[in-house]
Design brief:
about 220 residues; alpha/beta; Beta-carbonic Anhydrase, Chain A
């Protein structure tokens, strides 16, 4: 595509930005002056990079009310310093009270892992999802419907990421010092827009393993 056409794509975003500014300042003249000093979120949202799952809009929160980290298939890997840095910043500096892992049904990253599809360099990342699949293979292989099996793997992946977060030194240290932090797991449906609680909430080290075992025994 010629460079001029690419430039037009960018210009469209600038135009929409100006339209948005006009709209929000007409509705709230102090919007930007207030926003400058308003990063005081209670929530850290760890979600998928999927463009159809926008954090603030789904839960009706304003800018400044939710701190967001996104990657393919909402993973928290213990060697991923990007995710770990976000978690530590959210806990130590922003003092968030809730960490929410938000998966979504029909996740293409999880589908690629389930079907052993080759994507490219992302295969190295998706390998972690395959580990989740292998860990729960006994349950998954008894689900005959492909869509139902994918949906269940999306749920199990959220559960595993809740555990991964709870096992980090960052969260363990915060809990040991009495910091009030809850980790939740939710799943979003593109079909109806509903965000569902997966009943994974944990608030301390002891509860982490108990909740995990309880959910798997259902």
């Amino acid at each position: 595509m010629p460079a001029n056409n690419k430039k037009q794509d960018l210009e469209r975003l600038f135009k929409q930005n100006r339209t948005w500014i006009k709209k929000v300042t007409e509705e709230d003249p102090d919007y930007f002056s207030r926003l400058v000093d308003q990063q005081n979120p209670e929530y850290l949202w760890i979600g998928c990079s999927d463009s159809r799952v926008p954090a603030n809009q789904i839960v009706g929160l304003k800018p400044g009310e939710v701190f967001v980290h996104r990657n393919i298939a909402n993973m928290v890997v213990h060697t991923d310093f990007n995710a770990l840095s976000v978690i530590q910043f959210a806990i130590d500096r922003l003092k968030v009270k809730n960490i929410i892992v938000v998966g979504h049904y029909g996740c293409s990253g999880i589908e690629a892992a389930m079907n052993n599809a080759r994507i490219g360099i992302a295969d190295n990342w998706i390998r972690h999802i395959k580990d989740v699949h292998d860990k729960h293979n006994r349950e998954l292989k008894h689900i005959q419907d492909d869509h139902a099996r994918l949906d269940r793997l999306c749920e199990l992946n959220v559960l595993e990421q809740v555990v991964n977060i709870g096992q980090t030194n960052i969260v363990q240290d915060a809990w040991s010092m009495g910091q009030d932090i809850a980790i939740h797991g939710c799943i979003y449906s593109l079909r109806d827009g509903v965000l569902r609680d997966l009943d994974t909430t944990v608030t301390d080290t002891n509860e982490l393993n108990e909740r995990y075992q309880k959910l798997l025994s259902k």
